[in-house]
Amino acid sequence: MTSAADSLSGHQPVLLDEMLAALAVRPDGVYLDATFGVGGYSRAILAAGAGRVLAIDRDPAAVARGRALANSRRNFTMLEGCFGDAAALLGAQAVARLDGAVFDLGVCSTQLEDAVRGFSFTRDGPLDMRMSAQGVSAADVVNNADEAVLADILYRYGEERASRRIARAIVERRRSAPIESTAELASLIAGVLGRQRDRIDPATRSFQALRIHVNDELGELERALAAMPSLLAPGGRLVVVAFHSLEDRLVKRFLGARSDRQARPSRHLPDLPSRPQAQFRPLSGRAIRPGPAEIAGNPRSRSARLRAALRLPEHPAEQAHEDMP
Prior knowledge:
By secondary structure, the protein is an alpha/beta fold. The chain contains 15 helices and seven strands.
């Protein structure tokens, strides 16, 4: 179901069929694509017969693509901003409730392929990494942050075990001249780490960490997830596709804490506080992963994990009625 626009850009929406199955699009439904990107998910949801689709992106190039789509589809609306502000952005459109919301997290293939954006260590360009093209850049962080702060960023967001050595090397290098390009930083990191046994480029974890930090990606995700219980109508679907463990772990914890499948407290321990009312029901016991055919056709999909959940009724009586055979 990949569109011509997706093919031209080289972008292939990951787990597309699985996303549509989890979203269960209804003809009268209102849906949010919280990460428009190239628009593969939005177009697929529209093609599935959605009544209305709204999309969010903070990348100016993605917003331009979305507005071009909106010119040809009256039931599609493109919103510029961060998905962490979804409640305010939707409120400005007089949208109070959604029948489904989907998040395709991480960096878009078009961002990686554009050297000027500075996301990739495989293409030399300015050390930028800003999704919105505004605010503090990766170069600002690399050239100005304290050594301890740099090490913390690399360890926390990249799970880089050599974070202190890399941070020390960065600080030593920038004393002579600022580090301004992706190639400079990647070369420095390779010099610190040498050849990797796992065949992953030595710069991978550090670039991921800087990108997440610069764009506050985990903070945005936390804010967006916190808004979902009030934005999704009972019976609405939440679908999240994550590409690394930090994102997936955050989503898993969020759904686990609000699931109706938590272990129930023992009746022999009456003094324990009662658990909060469940808000979601997971649609599968585990995260859904791409199959061998998809990975062969799109190697970037190999790390994708899809988690989906159903928004439960807000009142216990409605829940009891729903669970009746």
